[in-house]
Amino acid sequence: MKTDIILAGVGGQGILTIASVIGYASLEEKMYVKQSEVHGMSQRGGAVESHLRISSQPIASVLIPHGSADLILSAEPMEALRYLPFLSPDGWIITNAVPFLNIPDYPSLEQIEKEVKKMENSLWLDAEQVARDCGSPRSSNIVMLGAASGQIGLNLSSLQKGIVAVFGKKGRDIVEVNLRALEAGRSFSR
């Protein structure tokens, strides 16, 4: 088993939290995992990316080459568009439909959606609305993780344990709302 994942978004969207949950779940299943991250100007709404490689065999390189990502999981539409060249021909792109308007010449959402949906395996999801419906607007990143869970190659129970591990210090209520967000997102998983 091998899964190469690119996580993309902007500062404050929880990209590194998703990486932590997946990393914990990978270790729970005794998998090898390597992660690389770029923060950019993340505290000012800049790009954040993480390359995450999971395998049942040792992993030599942390970076994912162009054209070989099994999954691009993006918390922001334009960031999804930015990483399309990394997607393998049979890979999945799963993106939040809600833009983070941090630049004056942000492309039209319709243009971005059209490009993303050209990919054979794509999911365009309003994760922020799903998170609000779960009672926690801040959990849209975990909704996205749930939506991508069918493409990651890890058991749902391992992802749930990852959520407990990552959010456990914040209290049981925070853990519960994130577990609900994971389940809500999973209902969109293909």
In a few lines, what is going on in this structure?
With 190 residues, the chain is of the alpha/beta class. The protein has seven helices and six strands, in the order E-H-E-E-E-H-E-H-E-H-H-H-H.
List strands and helices in order, with pairings.
Elements lengths: L1 E9 L4 H14 L3 E7 L8 E9 L13 E6 L2 H6 L4 E10 L12 H8 L5 E4 L1 H7 L6 H13 L3 H12 L4 H15 L4
Parallel strand pairs: 1-4, 4-5, 5-6
Antiparallel strand pairs: 1-3, 2-3
Helix pairs in contact: 1-6, 4-5, 5-7, 6-7
3D structure, described in words:
This protein has 190 residues and is of the alpha/beta class. The chain has one domain (2-186): 3-Layer(aba) Sandwich (Pyruvate-ferredoxin Oxidoreductase, domain 3), CATH 3.40.920. Helices cover 39% and strands 24% of the residues. It is built from seven helices and six strands. It has helices at residues 15-28, 77-82, 109-116, 127-133, 140-152, 156-167, 172-186; strands spanning 2-10, 32-38, 47-55, 69-74, 87-96, 122-125. Strands 2-3-1-4-5-6 form a six-stranded mixed sheet. Helix 4 packs across helix 5 and helix 5 (140-152) packs across helix 7. The longest helix is centred in the C-terminal third of the chain and has 15 residues, at 172-186.
